[in-house]
Each structure stands twice: as structure tokens, then as C-alpha cells.
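If I may wish for something, please sit down with the protein I am sending here and say whether C-alpha cells and residues agree:
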Amino acid sequence: MIKTVSNSVVKFMWVFIPLLLVGIILNVLIGEVMIPLRVLFDPSNTYRVIIMDIRLPEALACIVVGANLAVAGAVMQAVFRNPLAEPYVTGTASGALFGALLGLLVYVLFRASLPSPTILMPILAFLGALLATAIVVAFGRGYWLSLILAGIAVSILFSSIVMILDTYLLTIIPTLPAVVYLLFGTVSGVNWGEDVVMLSVSLPILAYIAVSGHEINLLMMSDEVAQAGGVSPRAFRNLLIILTGLLTAVAVSFTGIIGFVGLMTPHITRLLISSSDNSRVIPLSIISGSTIMLYANVISKVLIPALLCL
């Protein structure tokens, strides 16, 4: 069995690593301005600006956001012992978006005495994500169906509040289109500074969760098994909820709500490697989540203009 799983992991890496690299190249080449492949090796001044200031930051954002949402989904499915759990279904993403928009509103109203929204928005997004998750856990009472129903209710609640904040922000500043795009989810417009913030928060958390797969496996089985294995179930569960809240918050703050990546990526990874071992699923979900986000961004660049031309 171990040999079979190992072979599946090797095959997974052989497929997804090249796909990831090709996805990065496609994200750099494809857009409103199509860049010839040969230009990558000797870009002119015009293309250099597009590549370095627009396309590469967006590609890096796809990688980080895809990894964050995939890992958050895998951890939530294990913690809640529910295959339908993910940041969007549990209301975490909507809570994070509420916090991000609230941070932007507070900055607009009191900008003279506050730090940059690049700092303020992730902080309040994290608090919003934790608030939404806490409400879901409190009302879910540990039952998978109750958790999903509570998550949907909380998601709708925070989405309604987000629409109110969005309308108010656009009333104050009509030239603020980025707020609208946060409701749909996009990496367009992400810059190097925002990438640095996302990486600074995400890398330590992803590394910690990736090496905690064995403990997550114990918690997924039952609290009794986790305790017998030397893991404090309540403390470790709360820590994982906080960490996944941070991963979701830092992604949502700059790219808005991007659904289904957190839900589907862990399941696709488990299916491809024929294993539910989180010590394998979580690290590989980082790769598959990043790859899925890269290709989703490429498809959006091609498909939306094509539909507009119809």
C-alpha cells in the first residue's frame, strides 16, 4: 500500500510540476496584450513593464491564493470531518471579505491616522474570518449538517453586509472599481507589495500545516484518538481554525472571494494519489491548488473577451 501511494505521489508530481510551470508561462504571455514567447528571453522595454509590473505579480498571486484556499479547504474538511467544508461554505471567506471592506472603509474615513490599507485590510479580514467561523462552530454544534447549514446562513448574512458596505464605499468614492471586483474574485491589479504581504503571512502557516499532517490525521479520526496520540484536540483544532482563517483572510483581502478551489482541490488530490493521508494531501494540495488557479486565470482572460465578442 505504501509503495502504491508513493508511486501515485511521484506520478502526481511528474504531472503537476510541469503543468504549474506551463501555467506560469501562459499567465505571463496571455492577456489584453499578447506577448510572443520569444520576448520572454529578451523583452523590450514595453513588454518588460507588462511582464514585471502586471503579469508576474498576478501569476504569483494565483500561486499563493490557490495554495492558501486548497490547504484551508483540506484542513477544514479534516477538522470538521466533513467533505463539504471549505472557506466559502463555512462562511469564513464571506467574513474575511466583510473585514477587508470594513478595513477599506475605515481607511477611507480616517486615512490620516491609520496605516496603509495593505496592512489594515488583512488584519480586519482575519478578524472577520474568525468571527464568521466562530459563529458557524457555535451554531453548528459539531454536527456536519448543522455546520453546513450554519455556514450557508452566515455566508449569506455577511454577503448582505458586504453589499451594503460596497454600495456605501462606491457612494463615497465612485472611482473605486476594485471594490466591485472583490465580490467576484480576481487577481487583476495585484502588485508586488501585496504579493509580499501574502507571502509573509502564508509561507510560515503553509509550512507548519504541511508538517502537521500526522496530527491532523489523528484529529480527523476522533478527539479520543488525537488525545491518545499526544495531541490536545481542542487546542489543536482552535489553532488550525485560526491558521486557516489567516490563510483565507490574506487571500480574500487582495483577490476577493474565489469559490470552489478550497472545496474541490483537496478531493481532486485525494483521488489522484488514492489516499486521504493529510501528510501527503496537504503538501500536494499546495501544488494542485496553485496550478488550478493559474489555469483558471488564463481561461478567464481568454473566455470573457470571447463571450463579449459574441
User: Anything to note?
Assistant: The longest helix spans residues 45-79. The chain has a mean pLDDT of 85. DSSP finds twelve helices and no strands in the chain. The two ends are 52 Å apart (CA to CA).
